[in-house]
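During the first year of the project, the team set up a workflow for recording each protein of interest as an amino acid sequence followed immediately by a discrete structure-token representation. This format lets reviewers and collaborators read both layers of information side by side without switching files. As required by the reporting guidelines, we include two representative entries from the current panel. The first entry is reproduced here exactly as it appears in our internal archive.
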Amino acid sequence: MTRTKARLREEVLWPSMGKQVEQFVKTCYPCQLVGPRSKTEPIRSTTLPEVPWGDIAVDLLEIPGGNHLLVVVDNYSRWPEVILLKKTDASHVTRAMESTFQTHGIPECPQGQWPAILLCRI
């Protein structure tokens, strides 16, 4: 944004130019693609689980076309299981998770954007 203002000042100048340029750049999609990246979240270290598939991370990602990917990662081996979902209601997600559990066993407790109490063994 600073370079854009400097380049404009070489050619033109008008009242409140700085504010208008800032507002334009903040709403300009191509400008956002080439602009500075937002700060990434710091990496959190986790303890290594004692057994494979004893601790998993789960996330649901939306992809183009209205589909979703259910991503289940084993925190022991870092092995990802990726399942394409057409619907994200409870029955479809449960079926996909059951399929993963049938293959690898039931984990102690998953991590991610899930109500952990629903998936943890008590």
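The second entry, processed by the same pipeline in the following quarter, appears below.
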Amino acid sequence: MSYSAPILQNDLAQLKKANEEELAQAFKFAKAGNFPEIQQLIKKYPDLLSQAPKSNAKTNLINEIISELFSNTAEHRKLIRLLGKLVKYHPDKIDLTFVDENQNTLLHRIFWAAITIKNANFSKALLDIGIVLINLLKKLSDFIPLMKRKDSQGNSFLQNIFSPPAKKEISVEQLKSVQVTVADCLNPYKNRNSRIDFTNQSFPERLAKLLNDPLSLEPLETPLTCPEGYTLSQKTWDNLKNGINPFSAKPFKRNELKPNRHISEIISRFKTHFGNKDALVNSLNNYFNKLGDSAPQNSDLLFDSIEDLLDEYNFQYLSKVKPSKCLGSEKIDDSEEAQVFRTSRINHFLKSMQSNILDLKNGRSSCFSVNTKDKAHKLATIFHWINKQSLDVDRQMLALALIRDVCRTKRNPWGYWPSHSEGEFNTFMVQNKDYFKIPPDYSYDPALLFLLDQPHNVLAKLDEYIMNLQNHKVLSP
């Protein structure tokens, strides 16, 4: 009978909840740190951890355990162990959206306990629990709104950590440890070398996340970059009263913070083309392609991450849209879109090669690596040269010939072993045979290859050299 279904569903929902007497018993077990008894009740009532008593709708079992931490110093060890076990064994049953009567989230309460508790080991245990909760939140679609949720004082838990009120109960050492650990958890640059999936989050959505201040999670305003390459809003730097960069755990000097005009320009373009993905991508491609020598020469992790994101999008999107039209067997497509596509593939290869060389990947040995850094620097120079212009088919082939010459450089002075880089270049050409012609059988002047270690001086010479090769029809059959 269809009329009984809603009643049955409601009864099933009620079966997951303890009655008031059993819930009171669970709270009693929680205050005593009694995990086995609570575990039995959770098996019987799956919603127990998020269930609030009728007498106080602004609390639950997890919140009660944290409250007990602040009032019952004698049971700290038991309570923290209980909290850790519940988070470890029942992460899916914790209500991450919970707020108490003062609008504190679980993160507000746990991290405040971590910076005020009078025991460094207990602080570390609470910090570990808090990081687990942040990582659970990352899986939710409303991660940023939940992280930015404010308490009754108008502060998010991040503000309580990175610009805390001046209170005697705060431990300076524990505060620094919490700041560094949370910053590392929120560090948007940690997985820069990972492939990016645009099916779950679009290019504009991913760019918007990068353009958020990584500590406040608010959009960047007046971006300032420190010598180590981290970019924060001016207000965030100002709020770091202890003068410690939480990403590196090192002191920073305010006169060393520099306005980041490149990021400001990218933010401007993002706002201008908001809602139009194609226009945004084209605008950023034009900007990066025209930078050339004016691209950041010092460490700039945000700029590099945005460039990586754009390269990955160009590589994935254009290869799907134009899989066979970039280089046909009879006629070469040399349109602007085809040039961007082929250039993005070369750039993707160059970045992979630099990483492989410097990190000794794919079987490379540290025993014979005399030319390792020189080769990586040369490839970086070619990368900058490619990005400062629009490469037609001829120039792309000459660029590939130059890359091949650099890849042929032996990694040891005797030349007994073949170059890994040359093998990887040949593999790249085989994999991309539908998009590129084989580079001309031409070797570059060794003097020019030597100069590639000096990017500021060589780019103009490289332009002149390539132009000369084109004028002398090196590419002619």
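For the second entry, the following points were noted during internal review. The chain has 21 helices and five strands. Residues 405 and 443 are 7 Å apart (CA to CA). Both points are flagged for discussion at the upcoming steering committee meeting.
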